[in-house]
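2024-03-11 09:14:02 INFO receiving multi-entity request
2024-03-11 09:14:02 INFO entity count = two
2024-03-11 09:14:03 INFO echoing inputs for audit
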Amino acid sequence: MRYISRITTPDNPGFWRSPLRGPWLTSVLGVVLLAGITLLFVTGLLSYAAYNPDLSPFNDKTPDKGLLGFYLFDWPTSPHWLYRLSQGLHVTVGITLIPVLLAKLWSVVPKLFALPPARSVAHALERLSLLLLVGGALFEFLTGVLNIQLDYLFPGSFYRLHFYGAWVFFGAFVVHVVLKLPKALRVLRERGLRDLGREARGEREPDEDSGLVTPRPAAPTVSRRGALGMVGAGSLLLFVTTAGQDFDGVRGTALLAPHGGGDPGSGPNGFQINKTAAGVGIQPADTGGEWRLTVSGPRGGLRLSRDDLLQLGLHSSALPIACVEGWSTSDQWWRGVRLRDLAALAGFEQDPPGVLVESLQRSGAFRKAALRDNQVRDPRSLLALQVNGEDLSLDHGYPARIIVPAAPGVLNTKWVTTLTFGELR
Amino acid sequence: MNRFRRWYGQGPLQLLLLAASFALALYAGVRLLKGDLVAIAAWFVGAALVHDLLFVPLYACADRALARVAGRSRGRRSWITFVRVPAFLSALLLLVWFPLIAGQVKGYEAATGRSADGFLARWLLVSAVLFAGSALWLVVRVSRGRRSATKGRPSTAH
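2024-03-11 09:21:47 INFO inference complete, emitting structure
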């Protein structure tokens, strides 16, 4: 039998020695991923819709989306924490799933090297589909993980890569689920979630034609339960060091998350910032006493100073900032002029339309962005001048910024200079 | 039907599913690759290749090396876990948060208004806690094992 030990190329099933691999472990991990990735896909599509890409070319980074935008709907303003929840889930669950994904790929890696490369036309096509599945999953996780860390290494716009990549991945994912789920469920039903008795007795797991069980198992150094526990511990550790970036009180627990640890400052304006004034080229002269807000509509253009705005009726709303990067703040207490009151000044007294918002920002995406009529009409939507009882700080958008319930952070434009009601292009 | 199966290798349902999935992949893929075709395709395929041909062998070899070192000592199964688990957890954090830990995110301060320092220190601190906790657990296990071994010894007084 000595010759067996010389067979050390990975296409030989005996090359893979771990006694953990088998249909049971792969099935457990697969079912967890099925639930998790479905949630990621749905919350991802929600986030795409939350930008209202069909409203204005300024909101749309994917004008060639075609049929892929089939499901788009008017993003609502209630509940006001909707985007905070859906995008917080998208990013936090995504990060939590990373160890599960890696373990799943590890559990099936012998199949990658199986020879011949194709036993039949059907097998060749299925392997091509698996390239889209594995490449797509890793591409989506990689672009997502880099984007939330503001490390824009990927070749192109994140919106395009992550959105179109998700669709390429998802087709292969559905096929894989349809082809494999029945078998996975059968394995789990027949052997139970805990299939440990056989392992405790030192028996080999039946391969059931999966090609996963090694014919030459090494002595076990961990049980299958232990291996799953390790994956679970990895997920738990990532979760507890990430989830805190969605809550002001426990932000310190998010030790490694991009918006965890601490706040950028203290006091009323001390909460999290997405872009600083200096970072996007706001000059002090732009925001000083010379600053004017231009409000346009059927009545023509009005130019209002900050004092003029303070003379208008001020209203309050408690709303969070929730970013596409998955972090958010708790509700902040904003005070400013209602967007619908500004629409009335511009000549839309009844049923105001959408508005195009322009910022003083010299660089960065969404310097111009459109809000839909339902967002303008919501009485909580403000052109905010103050937050938590103080004037806005420069980094939070002084002299004036937009705050709209349930809208992604980037549509809450800072350093607003122009509001054009009814003309979004 | 049987002739189809013999020629194709599977039933028609599998072919229809794959065809639908490829059509969707092509529709989205054309849009995905617009811009920098070569670089984006390289990222897509490269992610799978780098993972399967570099990452998996790398961590498998590291784990095998650990098992081999442990294999020379007695009772390896009892202590290998105490190195493997904290090492795995620490490496996982490094993998996910590598850009921040390595300090390679240039725009971090301009975007967030916060210092980009501290991620490396916090990762090291978490790793230290993980390894120390694991060591403590091992000590407790070993000493408890000794105590129960002493208790279980039959009395020789009679």
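2024-03-11 09:21:48 INFO post-check: Chain B touches chain A through 65 residues (CB under 8 Å).
2024-03-11 09:21:48 INFO post-check: Residues 8 and 15 of chain B are 9 Å apart (CA to CA).
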